[in-house]
Amino acid sequence: MAKTLRTSGDYTVKAGAGYDSGSGSNTIRLDARYVRVPGDLVVEGTQTTVDSQTLTIEDQFIEVNRNNSTAGTEDSGIFFNQGSSNNQIIFYDADQSEFVVGSTTHSATVSAITNITPGNLRVAEPSQPDHAATRNYVDTQIVSGGFTIGFTGDDSTTVSINTGNTVDIAGGSNISTTAAEPDTVTVNLDNDLTNITSITSDASNGDLELVANGTGHVVINDILTFSAAASTPSADTVTKLYNKTAGGGGTGLYFINTNISSGTEGELISKKKATALAIALG
């Protein structure tokens, strides 16, 4: 037989002492198949435990960390109890302004996450630009060329390479690349260099060497121009050619070698000068 208890004001049920402080010594038990609260339910205390097999919530959104009044300072999230293993957690890291998935030794009573081991997150293959990408998707795009890369020059000008474009590195057709960690790609030019107008050594006071293969020679098939030397270079065991103001030889092209004339500078003599000397000397 249904019964209704109606009051004209507040109604309090007390079980033992300590009601005002929340430390009562007795328990109020509602023993029924269903307990319905048609109005709003407010639970005051430090912990609410729901001991059921299935929790069903009709609300579209769940709010956690409700009473936080300071912007961006408190971590919040959901813990997953894994028994004797570390708890798994999905939470918002306020200090880093990012969401994190992983495991932690903390319990759900902690106020801030100070240790976290990031975990794996499995997602579907992306179908639009703002979807998270799987590793397989990224690997496939790199192999098939379905991505865009950019090359930025010294003047900050960026050239974008899109799907279907060709990257052309001037210097010949047989270009090979080798990759090594960390993030290093070496480009080898295995053919003749073409359309090169300048080669400069970037080493301070360093030499620039042209080395032929095996018994081959360095061959110059056009005009070789010498800029005027600021000073006479020091003598060494190799022959050094350089240009200065023309002297008695009439060429201005000088050489120096420690094995020639004890390292004394010499000037190559012109045909005209050589002929004149031959006539003068009879």
Describe the 3D structure:
By secondary structure, this protein is mostly beta strands. The protein has helices at residues 135-144, 271-281, and strands at residues 76-80, 87-93, 98-104, 117-118, 149-152, 158-161, 175-180, 184-189, 240-243, 253-256, 266-267. β7 and β8 form a beta hairpin. The termini are far apart.
Q: What is the overall silhouette?
A: rod-shaped
Radius of gyration: 43 Å
* Spatial separation of the terminal alpha carbons: 151 Å
Count of helix runs: 2
Q: What structural category arises from helix and sheet content?
A: mainly beta
> Uncertain spans, ≥5 residues at pLDDT below 50?
none
Strand percentage lies at: 15-25%
Query: Major β-sheet, in short?
Result: 4 strands, antiparallel
H/E series, N to C? EEEEHEEEEEEEH
Roughly how much helix do the residues carry, as a percent range? under 10%
Task: Kindly report the average pLDDT value.
Answer: 83
Strand order of the largest sheet: 1-2-3-4
Number of strands: 11
